[in-house]
Amino acid sequence: MNTNSLIIVGIILIILGIFIIFAASIMSIFTKTKEGAEVKTGGVIMLGPIPIIFGSDRGMAIIGFLMAIILMIVAYILFYRSIL
User: Fold this and answer.
1) What are the transmembrane regions (predicted)?
2) Full pLDDT tens readout for the chain, 84 residues
3) What predicted TM-score, i.e. pTM, was given to this entire model?
4) Residue 43's beta-bridge partner residues?
5) What is the count of structural domains for the chain?
6) Are residues 50 and 71 in the same domain?
7) Which of 8, 26, 27, 38 makes a 20 to 30 Å CA pair with 16?
8) Residues contacting 61, CB < 8 A, separation 6+
9) Do 27 and 40 fall within a single domain?
10) Cα–Cα distance between 53 and 44 in angstroms, integer?
11) Residues 24 and 4 in one domain
């Protein structure tokens, strides 16, 4: 894979991510929730190699922690694959 194709793939992934966020926002507006339904949230923000993990409860924080580990492994493979 050359540099130009990696740039194109990156741009496509960014556009796809923006589209998914937009579609999920629209779907959440029109979707009716059941009375008493509980909404759980969580996420991971990667600042270089340092993950910031947040969640509305312990389960979501654990899922965020696992996602952070997966992201760090993927980043390691992508950045250091030329060394191996």
Assistant:
1) 6-30, 60-79
2) 677 888 888 899 999 999 999 998 898 888 877 777 788 888 888 887 788 888 888 998 899 899 889 888 888 887 777 655
3) 0.55
4) 54
5) 2
6) yes
7) 38
8) 42, 53, 54, 55
9) no
10) 5
11) yes
